[in-house]
Amino acid sequence: MIRAYKFLMRPTTGQQIALGEMLRDHCSLYNAALQERRDAYRHVSRTTVRYGMQSGQLKDIRAFDPERQGRWSFSSQQATLRRLDKAFAAFFRRIKSGQTPGYPRFRSVSWFDTVEFPKDGDGCRWDSTPHDPVTRVRLQGVGHVKVNQHRAVVGQVKTVSVKREGKRWYVILTAERPRPEPLPATGSVVGIDLGIANFLADSNGEFVPNPRHGRKAAAKLEAAQQALARCKRGSTRRRKAVETVARLHRKVRCQRLDHAHKTALGLVREHDLIAHEDLKIRNMSKAPEPKPDPDKPGSFLPNGAAAKAGLNRSIADAGWGVFLTILHAKAESAGREVIAVDPRNTSRTCPECGHVSKENRPTQETFLCQSCGHTAHADTVGALNVLRAGLARRNAHTA
Questions:
Q1: 356 and 255 both lie in a single domain
Q2: Whose CA, among 6, 112, 194, 379, lies 20 to 30 Å from 135?
Q3: What is the pTM of this model?
Q4: Regarding beta strands 114-117 and 2-10, do their DSSP bridges make them parallel or antiparallel, or are they unpaired?
């Protein structure tokens, strides 16, 4: 199994400059490769340039510009070209599926923040020796950079990536490790219903409150973004304002991740099976379609876009997608089973008699069956129905 580790780097002033130059030169290579593909398609009889052709030119590029391109790892430059190739593959895949394609764009240095080394030992070396109290990572063209390793890396390191977030630098490792021993069985199963009022409701009638980290930081973020908008482009004051905004966003992201990790860990430790709704979060957070006014050409009728925008912000702030990803990863490591079920009518179906009706849910929190009169919290009812669907799916699969 593959696991990722992210550690804070402690580069010196000279190493920070070298890391910035490494990002700049890889960004330049990415943009030049994109420009070559555009020009070849537009001006040379719609010729398609692929990764193999551009990778074959790297040797000549490094010899022509040894100061900027020749000093960095050959493999990391190949990884940058593969990154562009994946962007074009995704572009053509979206065209075939009828989605909005989104042609690959040129990147500025501020938007190009990651350099990948596909193999440990090729242009980079993760150095974590037991006898040395200081952990370092060696990067070609940069040197040995100190790393704040807050936990042990289990398994063999496969890839190494360097990422810039604001003023901080991180090293991200992927390591292949044997599958750990599963946790002891508890005999407990649970269904969960994700929401906005409560982050999570389970089939046992318990609730996890929604922390709303983004909403709590909204006032500070608004003030910081307004201060940024008043700064002159290219000025030192604007650079500091950008760092302030980035720091606030980073804090919210870390708080959201911390909450997701702790909530998922509690579920994995207590239950053998966890059933959840198979939510299509991207579809749920789409903006409503405009409604043209038939009586006034060029005008539009109200379509609830303002209210939907507020709901979309709440969905993004809850971080359901991040939580479910973490839950699946922790369950896999612990030997637990996670099942995603169809979310349709889970909050409208009576768990006692099975009656399905929109009127069974008169308010957001209340469930009142119109057939048998059963009443309960609507989110708890949804979690119960999710658990039943999950158990039915597991039994059908085992049979």
A1: yes
A2: 112
A3: 0.86
A4: unpaired
